[in-house]
Amino acid sequence: MAAETKTSASSQGELVKSALYRSPHPLVDIGFNFVDKSFDKARELFDRTDILERAREANVQGLIITGTSVACSLSAQQLCHSSDLGNSLHFTAGVHPHDAKSCDEGTIDQLRMLADDPKCVAIGECGLDFNRNFSPQSVQEEWFEKQVVLAKEVKKPLFMHCRDAADKFCEIIGRHMPLGVPAVVHCFTGNEAELRRFLSLDLFIGITGWVCDERPERGGAELAALLPNIPIDRLMIESDAPYLTPRSIVPSKARPSRNEPALLPHVLRAVAKATGRPEAEVAQQTSAVAERVFGVVVSE
C-alpha cells in the first residue's frame, strides 16, 4: 500500500511537469497556500524544493505564501526563512473569515509581530465569507475590521477575501477610507456590479484558475467576460494552490488534482485571451503591479 501511495503521489508532480510551460516574462504568484495540509500530508513525497523548482521552470519567480490563521502565518514565516528554499518566498499574516471564530485578545498582537518581519508583505487573508459562514457573520465582521485597522497601522497592504458579502465588505472598507495602503480582493469571482464597487474603492483584483473553469455552474466564462473591465494597473494573477487547478489542462486525466504555482501560466493564458492582450504584456504588467503593491522583486 505504501508503494502504491508513493507512486500515485509522485505522479502528481509528473503531471504538473508535463502540463507546465514557461511564461514569457517572470510571474508573481500573489496567493499560494504553501502551508496547506495537502502539502504537509505528502511532505515526504512532494519535496517542497521540487515544487519551487517546477515554479522556476515555468518562470514563476515570486511567490507569496498565504497566511489564513496565526498558526498558518507562523508556518509561512518559517518557510520563508528556510535556507534551502531560496529567497523568492514572502508571506502574508492574517486570519481568514473561516477562522475568525478562533481569534482572541492576543490575535492582533501576534499578527502585528509577524508584520514586523520584512518577509511579511501584507495583512490577510482576511475578509468576509457569507457563503459558507464557518464563523458567525458578526464575528467575521469584527475581525475583518480589526485587520483593516492593523494594516493601516503597520502600513502593509491588505490581502482580502469576499464571498457573497459585498455590501458589508464595502461598508467596512468604506469606513476606513482612505486606507493609505494598497488592498487586493483575492480570487475575485463576483459579478459586474461587485467589480465596479471594488474598483471604485481603488481595490486591486486577483484572478485565479477560476477563469479557466468551463463548467457553466462555476461562472468561469462570466468571469472572463468581466476581465476587460479591470484596468491593467489593477490586475494581478494567482494560483491559490493547492486549489483551483486550471481546468484548461486537458484531457482531465492529464490534470493534476493538486494545483501548484508552476501552473500559473495557464491562468496567464486565460487572462490574456479574455483581455485581448499578448501573454507577454499581461505577464509583465501583472508582475509589475505585484511588485509595486507587495514590494517583491522578480528578475528576468
TrEMBL record:
Keyword set includes Hydrolase: yes
UniProt keyword terms in alphabetical order: Hydrolase, Metal-binding, Nuclease
Ligand binding (a divalent metal cation 2): H161, H186
Annotated Gene Ontology cellular component terms: cytosol
Domain of life: Eukaryota
GO MF entries: metal ion binding; single-stranded DNA 3'-5' DNA exonuclease activity
Binding site for a divalent metal cation 1: E125, D240
SUPFAM superfamilies: Metallo-dependent hydrolases
InterPro entries from the UniProt entry: DNase_TatD-rel_CS, Metal_Hydrolase, TatD-like, TatD-type_Hydrolase
Stated family: Belongs to the metallo-dependent hydrolases superfamily. TatD-type hydrolase family.
Designated name of the protein: TatD related DNase
Lineage, opening ranks: Eukaryota, Viridiplantae, Chlorophyta, core chlorophytes, Chlorophyceae
